[in-house]
Design a protein that fits this description.
Strand 2 and strand 3 form a beta hairpin. The N and C termini lie far apart (about 40 Å). About 30% of the residues are buried. About 15% of the residues lie in helices and about 40% in strands. A seven-stranded antiparallel β-sheet has the order 1-2-3-5-6-7-4, covered by helices on one side. The chain contains two helices and seven strands, in the order βαββαββββ. With about 140 residues, it is α+β, with helices and mostly antiparallel strands.
Amino acid sequence: MDNIPTGFERAKFSSPFLDMAGPYYERQGDGCIIVATRINQGHINHIQVAHGGVLGTLADVALSYQVHRAEKPALPVATMNLSTNYLAAAKLGDWVEAHASIDRISKRTAYCSGRIVCGDAVLMTMTAVFAILRK
């Protein structure tokens, strides 16, 4: 059912929660890493669209992943704030992509923004602030 678009590969990050929330896929986009998933039956709520938490989790994952991969070695990050604007619903079978960018990064904090799309439709816009847990 996944029918993954060309250029995407299974995401390199994993945890029990993210494995349950996904599966996630990634590919390099223009200036960002695009994180995506296919909306499956486990993502659907009682009104037959993706639960808001599914898109909220995708937003957090995509934004934090940008910061995590911004430097080598990868940066450990923690979400301080996540703001989301739900604009449209995702339906069963939809391929949804999160496009995120770092707006500003310092030694201890990163500010990011982005959007989640399904084709040409914008489903969500989002912003976040991350603590960078440098040693």
